[in-house]
Amino acid sequence: MTVRPFVIATSGLVPRLNLSAVAEADRFDPTRVESAAILDSVERLDRRSYGQLSMPRWAQYDCVELPGMMFGLGDGEPLEPTAIVLAVPTLAPRHWAVHSVAGDDAAEALAGAIAALRLERVTGITQWSSPTLAVHAKWAPLMLRSAWTPAHSEPRTCVFDYDVLRNEPPAPSRFLDAADDDALRAIQAEIEAGTRFVVTGPEDGGRVPIAEVTP
Amino acid sequence: MTLAPKNTWLLDELEPYVVATPENLARFDLAPFGIDVRHRIDPLHTSAEPFLDLLKRLDESTFGPEEMPMPRWIFVDGAELTGGIVGLGLPASKVSAPIRERLAVPDDYDGLVPYAMYIAIPTYEPQTWVGHNLASIRVAVKDDNLRGLGSVTKAIGLAVFRCTSQVGATQWDSHAIHVHVRLGSLALLTAWTPAHTHQASLTYRVDITERGLRNLARDPAGAVEHHPPTRWIDHDDVDAMKALQTELEAGASYELCGPPERTDTGQRVPIRKLR
Hints:
heterodimer; A: 215 residues; 11-stranded mixed beta sheet; B: 275 residues; globular
């Protein structure tokens, strides 16, 4: 089976998309009853990927499908998702937040979402130990906004921004152990004091490379 | 002109707050109706944790019984990161014992205690927001001082966000419809919604005007117009909801044109066909 893209978005968003990126994509409007099956499949993929951090159905609708978009890859008839990206707009133009990237073809799905939305800047949020961080890190440098996030169910969560047309990331100046709570808290304290850090690449053996950058 | 809700206690005593990133705060109206939203909480700052704990418990107090409490991480991903949380609260030293107990306010906490919150996030359409959570301690703790709390909170929240069009989803049996229609007639986007946890949900869009916000807050300077309904939808009439959804998907246009009426088994909701 050939993996193909699909988009779950309300009818008002579709005309705003980069159609050359989604021309061959299956399209589903979450406000239509016929989309129930694909939404069931997306929910299953999300649950397999995130377990206790999977998104309740009502939140997928209110917090993603109505304001934003799901971009995915899938195969088969009926279409079965193999990867999904959940993205919502920020208040800045061409700057969206991606708060879920799941599945086997996650990197390709993220690239597809960025192209479809013509994004210039992305905000990501994920756990330090999540493979999702490596997916985003392909777009490094990732500017850290938080390194220890007690606002989240899982405080070992990082929030970061990156530019799609990115500069070459700097060389790392230290390596963060994703399981070292004290180290994560210490970085957070430095961030809150004004120091800026970037993630410079994917993790290696549970250690994430970061660099301090000048404001 | 300042906001003048019918229950003057709300704005005389309660203090407004906003939870949002600094980037979003810069885009908000932090003095809506001349009200100084002076409590500003950065959700990515670790110092915010105690207050965010209380917001979680406020949400559980409101939605726990309906089985739709919000997981903590959705406060971040689905509210604080891209949108905001606006509400009213009271300094801990002034909070009544029943509310302290209900929200499990720590004995050594001396900050603001949230009494209500309104959560909304921006959509791809400028100044159009999805409002997805309106919580009030009055659901769990009956106190006549808090009458109108949810409505005033939503009015201030929409003004802070500079929202001109609000989209939302609610259930046909929800009492919250009484609140939402005070903004004006609600254009129906869905009537039966399998995308939602509760399929008997409707999705609506409403234009936000100053008169509508004042009417929402029960300010005598506010007013909205509702036209008579062409039919009624009973809260448990699934066949009617599905039939209406079929009409909407075929291009029909309906609006929810007034507050629900109580029935022997629940409520019925007035709708009007536009085309």
